[in-house]
Amino acid sequence: VHPNVSQGCQGGCATCSDYNGCLSCKPRLFFVLERIGMKQIGVCLSSCPSGYYGTRYPDINKCAKCKADCDTCFTRNFCTKCKSGFYLYSGKCLEKCPDGLEANNHTMECTSIVHCETSEWSPWSPCMKKGKTCGFKRGNEVRVREIVQHPSARGNPCPATTESRKCIVQRKRCQKEGKGKKNREEKRKKSTKDESKETRQESKGRAARRQNREQRESNNKTQPKKRKAPNKEQDLAPVDTAH
């Protein structure tokens, strides 16, 4: 062992030197060179830092640098995240996405183009004019549909979701809800009042007739019976004196 090499190292190093840091790592740790100014220092890590990928060998595990356009990578030829200005597609970092794909600035990936999708049209609404279904002859009816899939940036835009057409209905008068209700209430009150009046009149009439009947019966009991006057014609009849 070189005099400058020590085996009593810290930080996961198996062997190290005062000038170059770690020279080898303990099992399962990755060896990577870190640049400090003009000097490179070896360190041992449990996982490779950003911009590096790990490779395992029988004698040493090393961290190798990704391509210049990769931020993180699985191998040198397979990126998992690209640096700013590049879009990830199938493990590669591209400045421009292939045909049929579009750049997603949120995920910085090339994704499939998504076109708008809508539901089926609803049935036509009743024929209306100014929010009413009466009091007119010509109006409009409407139908609608929902957006079930919004398009991506380069996808086909959504069509109209509302459709209107002219319609004709048989003219009919509108009955005002408030006025009709008021008239019905007044008619009900009047009918109830008339019924009450008739009932009172009938009660008064029955009472009056009963009182008159009772009065006549009382008079008949208190007054004496009148004697029947003689028939004057019979009293003045001529007497036969022939015999």
Structure description:
With 243 residues, the protein is an alpha+beta fold. Among the domains are: 7-65, Ribbon (Hormone Receptor, Insulin-like Growth Factor Receptor 1, Chain A domain 2); 76-112, no CATH class; 118-168, TSP-1 type 1 repeat. Helices cover 21% and strands 33% of the residues. It contains 2 helices and 17 strands. A 3-stranded antiparallel sheet has the order 1-2-3, with no helix packed on it. Strands 4-5 form a two-stranded antiparallel sheet. A two-stranded antiparallel ribbon has the order 6-7. A hairpin with a 2-residue loop joins strand 10 and strand 11 (92-94). The radius of gyration is 58 Å and the shape is elongated. The termini are far apart. The model is unreliable at 232-237 (pLDDT under 50). Its main location: secreted. It is found in: Secreted. Residues 116-170 form the Spondin-like TSP1 domain. Residues 11-110 form the R-spondin Fu-CRD domain. InterPro entries: Furin_repeat, Growth_fac_rcpt_cys_sf, R-spondin, Rspo_Fu-CRD_dom, TSP1_rpt, TSP1_rpt_sf, TSP1_spondin_dom.
